[in-house]
Write a structure and sequence with these properties.
The complex is a heterotrimer of chains A (about 300), B (about 450) and C (about 300). By secondary structure, chain A is mainly α. Chain A has 12 helices and 2 strands; from the N terminus they run αααααββααααααα. Helix content of chain A is about 70%, strand content about 5%. Chain C has about 300 residues and is mainly α. In chain C, about 70% of the residues lie in helices and about 5% in strands. Chain C has 12 helices and 4 strands. The chains are: A mainly alpha (about 300), B alpha/beta (about 450), C mainly alpha (about 300). The interface between B and C is large, with 45 and 49 residues.
């Protein structure tokens, strides 16, 4: 019983974490048809910025609870600085190119940002820590389930994931700009002809996606030691989630994250030996059964 | 056609380039050392960059002749040392290519380097092929000299079996009642070997122990929530871990708030470098190793003081961690061999002092030793290092052995101290020559006949 | 007409490389060896790209080829260079034929991702295989060539010469294949599959065949690389390795069989010098090089050498 509950809780926590990162990836893909490898760099940038901001906050001797605000500030700052540079400076000149070329453009970007991070923050692992060794991770206290202790910070992750998912769904389906965006997704050229400012739509989408990546990184920062190369580890997991769910699908990302989270937690508890490739195994199995992922719309055939 | 013209142009240029470098190589004014260490990737922060800082500090100090006895001579035998630093990132196949570049394009006199075991395994046969002295300074796998035999390859630090055996011995000595054993190690060769050696050692010492779980998270996973739950649920007395770097720190940051260590003693075989980084996060009584008598376990000596002083000035006051000590072992080992080779030549030249060309003979004797002379002096040598005496006694005199130590942490006044230190001699924790590590452990640590 | 010129040029290049071998500095021989190994893999990527497919998991076959070459030695004590290459060909042909039944249904990003998943499963399996050295891998050495002893001083030169010849044969055969009826279908499939079906050709069969050819090329490249480097490890099937192949293929362009071979050489040279002269920022150098090529030379480096515009 304990193990079952543990798998459930661990799985949900891990899924929430994955979802926050993957949802931005699927959003950018859905709108812009770019599988953004640099999403991993934005995640890493968010984490590094969060460490710097939170530690600066602690260094000023302000109330520890304020460090949570610093995490959000870091994510917003990263999105506002890097999204315009990347989208306006580079990607906008590449639209219309082959999907694969775009993937590689973001891969080149990923390599550049990787060294950029190294130049700015160095190679030492960094972590968030206050003067009395407190971290935002332990500040919120713990809760107990079936004899296991979990920090309440995990609940925060779950909460943020749910809020992010619902907010995006609401914005897409219930607001005017969301509906315009759906039109852009459906047919970029016709939307442009009808007077929708597609360039701005792309810019806003990319900024939101970048913010979600950076937020994922910022929320991860207090739980890990922030180290160069952390983006590379995450991006493949996020790809798996998005592909399992169906590229560009919001509910798909949620379901994909849940599946990956549960499978991973179950593997750790019942068969630690196979944890390493369980995720890819699920990805292959899902793609074999549903070639375009779990949630995928029908495509227009062009003759 | 344009292509083949371009090609031939490239070929001609390179031919000219190679001819010109060949002509220059005659006079020797410095010793060029290729130094390979991680400058990027997860191993850069905890290992790679401290190693680089140590190498630069050591070379600087040696070149100025400021090292304590017996290393006061400048550089290697009077010749200044010149460093060429290369990033170890990118995997074994890239490292082989880079190694060839170092030897064949840069024409270094020797290579010191390699933290990754895979890189060491891959580079060793190539060193043999290109016949260039190569000193492995940090990698841990025992396979290098247990599966191969090399003339040009040396390793100046003991291999990783020692860490596992000594950890098991320390547990026997200090926690004799521990029965339920768990592990969390990264799922790659070093993590698997560490756990396998430890599991075999602890079972050899006490057949009654119960292995309750062995967690093998992916290298660089970052998120250990599920693993911590699984460890918690297994209720172990002891948790063994060879985690290092960002992975270790992430695990500690996530496990400590969840009270995982309230009832379980943690053993960190490579934990020493993190003591100053994780105050308040490492529970009291955690058993930490430094992969040899390095860092806090290094015996006080002028050499240790020298290393600590020169390192601190380069690293903003931080004390050197065990990779820095390993670098010192490598450079001092080569230096000792180099100067021993010169001493041998001078020794054999003196009786001939009566001969006609005294000056010529003496010049020859004081000339830099050839590579073969250095290798002959290096094999089976014993030299002093900041971590104590190093004996090149395994692998036909190419693999070092040293003693090691473990201790338990105690957090006082904002500093993590290490207490209850126990030292283990080299032959307690290292297999005898010719016996493979795992076989030796399974035999119940049998020595001799 | 262009075909004849390519064949002739190939023969000239092979002859020049063979003749130059003994006079090249040793570092250059190893640089060429590595580039040619990569070049052969990227030849396969080029064929896939011409078919409109990009694999993010071609490291699977690169790695399988290398492990096949290494394990023949481990299991049967066979260390003949030709047998090792042959082993790589057989294993990759069998595996790709099986996986091809599945993968030939997939297109675009889903093809890329399913390939990625397969390559990562192999990675997981190899990491778990302690007898194969886990992530540390093991060393490989070729000792004979068709029965002749090649160990000793001339080993690198022999390996180099064999690599040149194998590369020449691979490029020549691929060039002939691309000019054949089925080879020409590749471009048509990329442009519009339905039209190809209406013409009465089987898209799936063509994709399947091209997939197997590209896998075998990757296997040959992997086997040569194993012999060359002398060491293999699971990193060869990890995703950044596969990404590198795509990277070189895009960098090179797909217009001619020369493109991947030249592109691989340029890539290796840039990387080798970046490692040496900017050890702290070599990734940035690679990334910027790649961006510059993609922005200013959309047809890849090869477009420098062609006057008329060729669809990339």
């Amino acid at each position: 019983m304990t193990e079952f509950v543990a798998v459930l809780v661990d799985g949900i926590v891990y899924a929430s974490w994955l979802f926050i990162i993957a949802v931005g990836l699927t959003l950018i893909y859905g709108v812009m048809k770019i599988l953004n490898i640099a999403h991993g760099s934005l995640y890493a940038l968010g984490a590094f910025a969060a460490v710097s901001c939170a530690n600066a906050w602690f260094a000023q001797g302000y109330a520890a609870m304020g460090s949570f605000a610093m995490l959000a500030v870091a994510a917003i700052a990263v999105a506002l600085v890097f999204a315009p540079i990347i989208e306006r400076g580079l990607l906008r000149h590449m639209y219309g190119k082959d999907e694969v070329v775009l993937v590689l453009v973001t891969y080149a970007l990923f390599l550049i940002l990787e060294d950029f991070i190294k130049l700015v923050w160095g190679v030492d692992p960094l972590f968030v820590q206050g003067p009395n060794y407190e971290t935002p991770y332990s500040l919120l206290g713990n809760f107990d389930v079936a004899g296991l202790t979990y920090p309440n910070y995990n609940l925060l992750l779950v909460g943020v994931a749910i809020v992010a998912g619902l907010a995006l769904a609401w914005a897409l389906n219930r607001t005017r700009s969301g509906k315009l965006l759906l039109a852009v997704i459906h047919d970029r050229e016709v939307s442009a002809a009808l007077g929708i400012n597609v360039g701005r739509m792309y810019f806003v989408t990319f900024t939101i996606g970048a913010f979600l990546a950076a937020l994922g990184g910022a929320l991860t920062a207090p739980t890990v030691s922030v180290v160069t190369g952390m983006g590379a580890e995450v991006i493949v997991m996020a790809f798996a989630v998005v592909v399992i769910g169906g590229l560009g699908s919001l509910p798909g990302a949620a379901l994909g994250a849940l599946i990956v989270g549960m499978v991973r937690a179950a593997a750790v508890h019942y068969a630690p030996e196979v944890e390493l490739f369980s995720v890819y195994f699920v990805m292959a199995a899902v793609l074999i059964a549903r070639p375009k992922g779990l949630f995928s719309g029908a495509e227009v055939r062009k003759i | 056609m344009l292509r083949s013209i371009l090609r031939s142009a490239v070929v001609c240029c390179s031919l000219l380039a190679s001819l010109s470098t060949g002509a220059l190589a005659a006079q020797k004014t410095s010793v060029k050392v290729g130094f390979v260490t991680f400058l990027s990737g997860p191993a850069a922060g905890p290992f790679g960059v401290p190693a680089k800082l140590a190498a630069e500090a050591i070379v600087d100090s040696l070149n100025r002749g400021e090292a304590p006895a017996p290393y006061q001579i400048k550089g290697f035998g009077g010749l200044p040392i010149e460093l060429v630093i290369v990033d170890e990132a990118g995997g074994a196949s890239k490292q082989v290519a880079e190694f060839r570049t170092l030897v064949q394009r840069q024409d270094v006199d020797l290579v010191i380097g390699y933290i990754g075991s895979g890189d060491c395994l891959a580079v060793a046969p190539i060193a043999e092929e290109v016949k260039r002295l190569t000193v492995l300074f940090d990698c841990g796998t025992p396979r290098i000299f247990e599966e191969g035999s090399y003339k040009y390859v040396f390793r100046t630090r003991p291999h990783a079996t020692m860490d596992a055996v000594a950890a098991a011995l320390y547990l026997r000595d200090t926690h004799p009642t521990a029965r339920r054993i768990a592990g969390i190690n990264q799922n790659y060769a070093y993590g698997q070997d560490s756990w396998n050696d430890f599991e075999a050692s602890i079972k050899a010492l006490n057949p009654d122990v119960d292995i309750v779980t062995s967690q093998m998270p992916k290298f660089g996973a970052g998120q250990y929530g599920s693993e911590i739950s699984a460890l918690f649920a297994a209720r172990p007395d002891v948790i063994h871990s060879s985690l290092w770097g960002g992975d270790l720190e992430a695990f500690m940051l996530q496990a400590q708030p969840r009270n995982l260590f309230r009832k379980s003693t943690l053993v960190l075989v490579a934990g020493e470098p993190y003591l100053h980084r994780l105050p308040g996060k490492i529970p009291d009584g955690t058993i930490v190793g430094a992969r040899g008598t390095n860092g806090v376990y290094a015996p006080d000596s002028p050499l240790k003081k020298w290393l600590v002083d020169i390192y601190k000035t380069r690293a903003d006051g931080l004390a050197p961690n065990y990779p820095a000590y390993s670098v010192a072992e490598a450079f001092l080992g080569v230096k000792a061999a180099w100067e021993k080779a010169i001493g041998k030549k001078i020794g054999s030249a003196i009786p001939m002092g009566a001969a006609k060309n005294v000056k010529e003979e003496m010049d020859k004797a004081y000339a830099p030793p050839t590579q073969d002379e250095v290798i002959a002096a290096f094999e089976h040598s014993t030299f002093e290092s900041p971590s104590g005496k190093v004996q090149m006694s395994l692998g036909n005199g190419h693999q070092a052995v040293t003693g090691t130590a473990y201790g338990a942490t105690h957090f006082v006044d904002g500093v993590v101290k290490v207490e209850k230190i126990r030292y283990y001699k080299a032959d307690e924790v290292t297999p005898p020559a010719g016996v493979k590590s795992l076989d030796w452990i399974r035999s119940g640590f049998k020595r001799g006949n | 007409m262009t075909r004849d010129r390519t064949v002739l040029a190939l023969l000239v290049v092979v002859a020049v490389l063979l003749a130059a071998g003994p006079f090249l500095p040793r570092w250059m021989i190893s640089l060429f060896n590595v580039s040619m190994g990569y070049g052969i893999v990227v030849l396969g990527m080029m064929l896939l790209m011409r078919t409109g497919l990009v694999s993010f998991g071609h490291g699977l076959y690169y790695c399988l080829g290398a492990y096949a070459a290494g394990m023949i030695d481990q299991i049967w004590n066979v260390s003949d260079m030709l047998a090792m290459i042959g082993g790589g060909i057989v294993v990759t042909a069998v595996v790709s034929t099986i996986l091809g039944f599945l993968l030939s249904k997939y297109r675009e990003i889903f093809f890329a991702m399913l390939s990625l998943a397969f390559s990562m499963i192999l990675y997981g399996l190899l990491v778990k295989s302690a007898s194969l050295g886990s992530t540390d891998g093991f060393n490989v050495a070729a000792k004979t060539l068709a029965g002749m002893d090649i160990t000793g001083k001339g080993l690198r030169l022999t390996v180099y010469s064999v690599t040149v010849v194998v590369m020449g044969i691979a490029a020549l055969l691929l060039h002939r294949y691309l000019a054949s009826h089925r080879g020409r279908l590749a471009g048509a499939i990329r442009d519009n599959e339905l039209r190809v079906e209406y013409m009465g050709a089987s898209v799936r069969a063509t994709v399947h065949v091209n997939y197997v050819i590209s896998a075998v090329l990757a296997g040959i490249g992997g086997a040569l690389m194993a012999i060359n480097i002398g060491h293999i490890d699971p990193e060869m099937t990890y995703w950044p390795q596969s990404g590198e192949f795509v990277f070189i293929a895009i960098l090179s362009g797909t217009a001619s069989v020369f493109a991947p071979l030249g592109g691989a050489l340029v890539f290796e040279t840039v990387r080798s010098f970046a490692y040496e002269y900017s050890p702290n920022t070599w990734q940035m150098v690679l990334g910027i090089t790649m961006l510059v090529v993609m922005i200013f030379l959309p047809g890849g480096l090869w477009s420098l050498f062609t006057r008329k515009k060729v669809a990339a």
